[in-house]
Amino acid sequence: MIISVASGKGGTGKTTVATNLSASLGKNVKILDCDVEEPNSHLFLNPKIDKTEIVYTPVPEIDEVKCTYCNKCVEICRYKAIAMIGETILTFPELCHSCGGCMAVCPEGAITEKGRELGVVEYGKSNNIDFVHGKLRVGEAMSPPLIEEVRSYINPEIINIIDAPPGTSCPVIAAMKNTDFVLMVTEPTPFGLHDLKLGVEAVKLLGIPCGLVINRSDIGNDDVRVYAEKESLPILLEIPFERRIAEVYSKGDLVVEKIPEWKEKFLELYRGIENIVKKGQDK
Fold it and tell me: pTM here?
């Protein structure tokens, strides 16, 4: 089972839901924090990191002795990562998307690849929970390859919970694709509803079952619930705007540990996801 916890916008409580769901299950579970630009799951789970791996992405290196300045590499690159000025060829590694097209079209074999550091992946444990997260290098813009590296640690034999980046851009799609279920975390406000709609449309394009958690559920209005009913989106959990809950996660603690009755509510959330996935598989 692979569950991606996502949100149309930041600040809805996505990481709070992902970490508390993981802690509720307690064993045979792995959390993968794919919000590599600003990973926060470790703040709640305090894992012991056992392994750190530097992640590289291939970028072109041009041998100007072999280069005949045919311009084919410049023409194929849609990201302007290669430029030619007279008989000078320039590469811009930060713009490269590592597609390998320039190598494929070079008639002289003048282009090879070298590694450019993207960031790191750290692996460890938090009690019985397997933990993986990525940290994007400062100044780096290409997060999807690092997200893919984090996802390579998915274990299909256990429950995998992905803490996806916020929004609906390429990094979010990289985190959500090829999962069994997407759990959207939203809040009942106009901004929450607007960005929820964008997120749900992205999930529809991917063809993945989806459900909702409404955080701070007793503020705002009922527009999110009306939208959910219209779109046949099950609301699997509502978390009220309570001081004691806010105090717990503001201290970096887990709600399911400090307020024990919430553990059963998160387990019920998982059972709801499991039932939806099974019904989809039986069709």
Answer: 0.89
